[in-house]
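Components:
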Amino acid sequence: MMFPEFSHEAEYLEFLSRQAVLPAGFRVATSRIAFTPRERPTLEPYRMNISLLFADEPTSSFAGVFTTNAFPGAPVILARQRLDEPAIQGILINNKIANVRALTGLDDARRLTESLGRALSIPAARLLSVSTGIIGWTLPVDAIEAELPALAAGLHDGNAIDLAQAIMTTDSFPKARRIEVGGGSILGIAKGAGMIEPNMATMLVFLVTDLVIPRESARRALRRAADETFNAITVDGDMSTSDMALLLSSGVVTGVGDDEFAEALVRLCGLLAQDVVRNGEGAGHVLQLTVSGLETNGWARGIAKAVANSPLVKTALYGNDPNVGRLLSAVGDYLGSNGRAIDPEKITIGVGGETVFSGGAFRLDREKEVRLSDYLKSTALNPRVTGYPQHQRCVEVTIDCGSGSASQTVWGSDLSDQYVHENADYRT
Amino acid sequence: MMFPEFSHEAEYLEFLSRQAVLPAGFRVATSRIAFTPRERPTLEPYRMNISLLFADEPTSSFAGVFTTNAFPGAPVILARQRLDEPAIQGILINNKIANVRALTGLDDARRLTESLGRALSIPAARLLSVSTGIIGWTLPVDAIEAELPALAAGLHDGNAIDLAQAIMTTDSFPKARRIEVGGGSILGIAKGAGMIEPNMATMLVFLVTDLVIPRESARRALRRAADETFNAITVDGDMSTSDMALLLSSGVVTGVGDDEFAEALVRLCGLLAQDVVRNGEGAGHVLQLTVSGLETNGWARGIAKAVANSPLVKTALYGNDPNVGRLLSAVGDYLGSNGRAIDPEKITIGVGGETVFSGGAFRLDREKEVRLSDYLKSTALNPRVTGYPQHQRCVEVTIDCGSGSASQTVWGSDLSDQYVHENADYRT
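Structure:
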């Protein structure tokens, strides 16, 4: 079983440490600095983790997918440029400040790769600088630079659980998944909690493998995996300026086929994507919503995302309230807004295996309402309180539109008062 | 001043009673019933208000605008049909259950107009049945029918404040606005709190006037007013199955010009629309967002709605946290999702008169952050606690995109834990 149930944090951390084993040819290091952000109203010291993911040798086999936000952060701009470099060797990561449109942002990112290159005795162009956190504030470049020699000196192989923890912002638990394939392995480490909507939003994913995989094959595989997994999850519909998934191969294990690798990457990214939803800020339920019976995947995914992002659907889930009328309303809202009609007679909606709408009308009675409410309670979880995900149960909702054979599944979360609290005072 | 500040609920109710004066030729009545919804998990009695808005004479001068949700409720379907009737005379309104896609929904709505027609001795086709509340549950038709003779007998002229109160669901205060024009008046009464997004979402608006206005002029005026006011507000981005605005003229005061009437209707609906936002479920701030410098109104409104609906923007407002990075991120998310780029150098963002982004970079420092936070605190309100709106101050945000002369203003609200609470257990 890829994801057992856990009753104590120690059980989850033990599971995580088995997952976070570095493939051959990679090392990691983490460190911590204190500084005073120049934009912060108060003067108390602010702490930032800096981390380094490093390959023993430069590799030409690397890939990246990035946010489609029109105002990406400096790390995204720099990484897109360096995708064309012949080889990459390391990634510097900081949390707390996202380095987006600060006056000197791109210069700051470049300067950090230069300083780190000196500390590692490699060219700056082989390094990336990745940031996550507050948008608009300035990176404490001097303080980070001063720490880089110590960071470089701390590189270790073995287990990357420290990196999975260091890159967290509002995450309630570290996320790492490993898959064995073709005689080697792929390790994925993810950061992300709120602001998760298609195309990578405020999510950082670092994928490392020891498998030999040609550069173009790696790029194709990553694009496909991102589309099928990270782009099928949504927490709050906001797509951030900073999201990216990066893949590096150390190329020490030969023999995996392109297709075999691609399939494995989809499976691995699917696990990470669901971990990210399960970690949604204040998430009390994970929604697995399958919309079927449309002519195209685009329509199916559009409807599914609209329903999964509806604040009224999300708050009802949080309250264990089977307010299924909001599901149909959200479908109708999306269709109407997109100038489309579907005969309600064709639509069937199921929640947890119970049919709640069919033949043009809701099918509800007192006993079914009680069963539905019990079902919602049975799928609740609270990683924010426990610090680990207790189980992987989802609220399973199906909406069949009876108008074609395309089908799409998305994963979303509920909307809790905890989400509001976390995001109301994120910067203080 | 159309909207003074209030320090006590009694002051607001006095203001409201001056607003809610019925134009000549109209009467209203309200009543209350208790019943047990067949879909409700518990058996406790459930209370529903029923209300009647009635013209002394049937009128051919009436208009309606409706939700664009693809699955409208039975009241919307019936009202659209009856727009073609030669005359309308009355509107029956219930709260608590929206009568959307219940098995017998359309029959129920028709049957209620027939029973009410008998009680009033007029044809059923001159009546509308309007419902707001839970989607998917069944109207208690027998219980409503039994009350209709008493409702009809209770019709009174003078003041409609009782109707403004009876149609509320999660509204925290009744909403009525009156405007004098052309020797007569227009009275607007609105219901709406959550689920308010373009095109009338879970908002009911009843507009009555004693002014003679030709049917087609009334319809043009209402379409324009709805587009410029109700379609420019957003509370949670959900568009309901039940929203509508209806306009009836008793036609006893001659002399208003079509344009004069249309202008007055826009002003009146603008006041009601802002009242609805101010009443957003758990609203702690009203956001007035002007997006300018685009080639078309469509782009300007699209960006404005996207920013106003961003959960991360909304939660930051709630927390009095000037997390202005989220404004730019939401603009970039919308642009990127719609395949468009704008040079960030061209963009200027202001909050409360302070420039926070210009020339491609954020312009923030410690002192400005303190001023911005103080500004957000000064615009906070809490109608949910006070039961009335204390003031009409907004958080004023401007986003100039430097790429054209089109400009649009939208009004939105913040996202509070109160919103989550109300919508998590709306039906219990």
